[in-house]
Amino acid sequence: MAEAFLDEPSHDEIPIVELHPELSSGSDVDPYMAPTDMLFFPWALDQIPSDPFPDLTFHQQPNHSEAEEIDPALRPTVDALASLHTTLAATDPSYAGAGTTAFVEALAACIFSRANRDILVATYFRFTHLHLPLLHRPSFNPQTSTPAVVLAVFLCGALYAPPRDCILAVRRRGSSLFPLAEEYVFRRLEACIASHERRTIKRRNEAVGGILGGGESEEEKEMYETFQAALLVHGAQFLMNDPAARSAAWMARRPALVDAARRLGLTSARHTQHVVVGDRVDWGRWVRDETRIRIANWTFLADWQQGGVLHTPGLATIHELTADLPSLSELWEANNAAEFESAVRANGEGCWRRSASLRDCTDALVADAWSGVEGFPLKNISCLDHLLLVSAIHVMIGYSRLISLLPPCIPALHRAIDRWEELWHATTSRIDDEHLRTSGFFRHCGEYAWLARALLKHSAEGKDRESAYYQRIGHDTPKELHDLLRELKENDNMRDGH
CA 161 from chain center: how many Å? Predict the structure, then answer.
């Protein structure tokens, strides 16, 4: 069972729907791209989805002259990286590039060339975006988007690109490019937020009014796109199988992301339009609101999942996440206002605004009373909603155990899993196998629920006291988690008589 997490296949012929599926096998993932500990991370799994870019030739090779020319749109970013590299190499002994004296211009030119732009951007949206639909694809433009988010897309695209020397150099453990990019993006994020806070205070003092006013300013656009970049680069860096990077994630990056979401008020981000029935929703404003909502939800989800891998307490709480849940993918992926309006009509006039937050849904899952799927506060439940909900159940299990209250909480947690499964079956019964197969990591929600139930049984039987995973808070590698998953799998097989 747990091999669905331990050894995610690259080519899946049959979608995994049931809660106790047969074991998966095999993987042809590039070893630099896919370390053995990438479980739980939706942006790092399932290599071959359906192809939204049928005209893309992935083994296209740029010619020599193109590979040596840095894309002019990225030249300022490359210069900023070179300057930061020089500073870190001279002042920070822990920096991966501390032993070098100069920024590797040739590698930067190879990666950030014009020839690579279409390949790496398309690769990002073909693979990473399937598991982490954080960016608004129709709005992304390498020429006009914030440099930090373009940098993040280039690097995350390189994780899935066909292997060439420059691509392998980026992915290889010990390369300084990812930690350098991460440091650059997080410094830019802090600078953007600090500037935003100063502007907000000034406007309040001048009694100008709301934060967004009549529209989103360029400064705010840069800030939110930089936040998205931080989530992407940090997530990729966490997957690099580097204990030093994971230590930095635990001690600095995760706190910075959660703190940023709180400082910007994203924990309560909602759609702000009040539309009378029959009127049109302002698509541009909807995208701005939805961007903030998705940043909030993905920040919390990343915190919880990374905490689960290394057994560190989550910094974000379910109770504070009163933001709307992310909207339906059909709306988010609409290329223009006309497509957006068509998607709204197809899914119901009020579908552009979600009916509940994660906190509302979690309260319903653990409540004494249950009115079934029809009475659940969230309507049009998506696979992404299910991932957030089952992740919240894992958070409740983890917190209950950390404060020594798991035994009395087990009945309520079992009840929450039962109700989640009822919702999950209702969702999967109305979508076809191909849709589920191409839904990224979200199709593995059933296994994630199985894991929650297995953890409760493991603890109820007292076996958790013998598990190395639970012996300390914070591990250097996911080995302890892998061992725990194998133990749960073996226990499950023994109960089934296998």
Answer: 19
How many CB atoms lie under 10 A from the CB of residue 102? Answer: 10
Q: What is the DSSP letter of 476?
A: S
Find out whether 300 and 261 touch, Cβ atoms under 8 Å. yes
Would the pLDDT of 285 be above 50?
Answer: yes
d(CA 270, CA 293): 6
Distance CA 60, CA 12 (A): 25
Of 131, 18, 150, nearest in space to 77 by CA: 150
Sign of the dihedral through C-alpha 42, 43, 48, 52:
positive
Closest CA to 139 of 4, 302, 340: 340
Contacts of 484 (CB under 8 A, 6+ apart): 467, 468, 469
CA distance 317 to 390: 14
Asked whether the beta carbons of 95 and 89 are under 8 A apart, the reply is yes
As a whole number of angstroms, the distance between CA 254 and CA 231 comes to: 9
Tell me the residue length of the chain.
498
- Which residues fall within 8 angstroms of residue 79, CB to CB, at 6 or more apart? none
pTM: 0.85
Cα distance between residue 495 and residue 498, in whole Å: 8
pLDDT in tens, 221-230: 999 999 999 9
Q: What angle do CA 282, 288, 291 make, to 5 degrees?
A: 135
Between CA 17 and CA 24 the distance in angstroms is 13
Give Cβ neighbours of residue 293 (< 8 Å, ≥ 6 apart): 266, 269, 270, 271, 323, 324, 325, 326, 327
Map residue 424 onto helix, strand or coil: helix
Give the burial string for 435-456 (b: 16+ CB within 10 Å, else e).
Answer: ebbbbbbbbbbbbbbbbbbbbb
DSSP letter, residue 275: -
57 vs 246 pLDDT, higher one? 246
